[in-house]
Amino acid sequence: MWDKAGDGQYHTYVPCERMIRIFADLTDRDESGGIRLRHPQTMADIERQHLLLHHGAYVVLHDGHDEVYTCLNEPQDENGEPADGTWIAYPLDDSDVARDR
User: Fold this and answer.
1) Global confidence as pTM
2) What is the pLDDT of residue 67?
3) Given the DSSP bridges, would you call strands 88-91 and 20-23 parallel, antiparallel or unpaired?
4) Residue 98 belongs to what H/E stretch?
5) Which residues of 10-47 are buried (b: 16+ CB within 10 A; e: fewer)?
6) What single-letter DSSP state applies at residue 2?
7) Pick from 76, 57, 58, 83: which is nearest to 68 by CA?
C-alpha cells in the first residue's frame, strides 16, 4: 500500500510477474553507461502502468526500435546514499538476458 500524496488515501499495488517494458531515451547515459529514466514519455509510461520503481527490479527499456534489458538502481548522492532524483537502469550482460528470456 502506498500513501502517495501523504493524505491518508492509500493505494494498493501487487507485484507484476511479467517483464516491465517502458520507453526510454537509450542515448541518455550516465558516466558508467547506465540509462537515465527521465524522458517525459518514460515518466508517462511509469505513471500509466502504475509502477513503483525499486532497487534491483528488472525492466526492458525501448526507444521504439531497440530494446535493452536492464536492472534498476536508485539515485544516489555523492556519498552513495539514496537521494531523490533520476533512476538509472544498468544494461544486463547477454548471459543474464538469455536467462531472463
Assistant:
1) 0.74
2) 94
3) unpaired
4) helix 94-100
5) eeeeeeeeeebebbbbbeeeeeeebbbbebeebeebbe
6) B
7) 58
pLDDT in tens, the chain (101 residues): 566 667 877 767 666 667 889 999 999 998 889 999 999 999 999 889 888 888 888 899 999 999 999 999 877 767 777 666 789 999 998 776 667 66
Tell me the Ramachandran region of residue 16: left when phi exceeds 0, alpha when psi lies from -120 to 50, beta otherwise: beta
List Cα–Cα distances, 44 to 21, 93, 99, in angstroms. 12, 27, 29
Q: What is the DSSP secondary-structure string of 7-64?
A: SS--B------SPEEEE--TT-B-TTSPEE---HHHHHHHHHTT----TT-EEEEE-S
Q: Which three cell numbers stand for residue 64?
A: 521504439
